[in-house]
């Protein structure tokens, strides 16, 4: 496995995914703010949370990139379309398992059952993160497929 390629290209693909998600949020396509969601695990200050969350997302993206690279190594090839398929699997798990479970572990996120006494500052994402907007699943799928395609192309070029 090309460890230097994984480290560099995982960072590039994650930065592209994060930038695309932030752009989609600023364009009004989604209210999902991944840096804020991740950063509020650490701090309640929204500005600091976005900075911390950006770096936490880069670290998580490196972990996922390692999984993609290992899959490419097991298959003895890296292609854009294998990366896209892995992106679809990745986003499927994120939207149906990871995000819906967050309210159970996130100290500043309400749950679907949180009552008026809740002090949570973030609303729960819900299944497919639909609580953050009707276009959120589509935006999330597109950016994760782009992430996988980037890794497939960049790791193939090595």
The N- to C-terminal Cα distance equals 10 Å
What is the β-strand count? 0
* % residues in beta strands: under 5%
CA-atom Rg in angstroms: 16 Å
In brief:
This protein is mainly alpha-helical. It is built from five helices and no strands.
List its salient traits.
mainly alpha, 0% strand, elongated, 158 residues
Detailed description of the structure:
The chain is an all-alpha fold. The protein is 68% helix and 0% strand. It contains 5 helices and no strands. It has helices at residues 3-26, 34-39, 46-75, 80-105, 136-156. Helix 1 (3-26) crosses helix 3 (46-75). It is elongated and about 50 Å long. The mean pLDDT is 90.
How are the SSEs placed, and which strands pair?
Layout: H1 3-26, H2 34-39, H3 46-75, H4 80-105, H5 136-156
Helix pairs in contact: 1-3, 1-5, 3-5, 4-5
């Amino acid at each position: 496995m090309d460890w230097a390629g994984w480290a560099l290209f995982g960072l590039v693909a994650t930065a592209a995914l994060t930038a695309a998600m932030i752009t989609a949020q600023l364009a009004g396509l989604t209210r999902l703010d991944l840096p804020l969601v991740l950063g509020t695990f650490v701090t309640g200050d929204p500005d600091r949370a976005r900075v911390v969350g950006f770096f936490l997302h880069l670290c998580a993206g490196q972990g996922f990139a390692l999984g993609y690279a290992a899959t490419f190594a097991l298959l003895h090839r890296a292609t854009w379309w294998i990366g896209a398929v892995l992106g679809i699997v990745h986003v499927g798990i994120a939207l149906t398992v990871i995000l819906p479970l967050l309210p159970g572990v996130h100290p500043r996120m309400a749950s679907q059952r949180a009552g008026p006494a809740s002090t949570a500052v973030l609303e729960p994402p819900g299944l497919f993160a639909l609580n953050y907007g009707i276009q959120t699943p589509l935006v999330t799928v597109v950016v994760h497929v782009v992430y996988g395609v980037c890794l497939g192309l960049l790791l193939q070029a090595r």
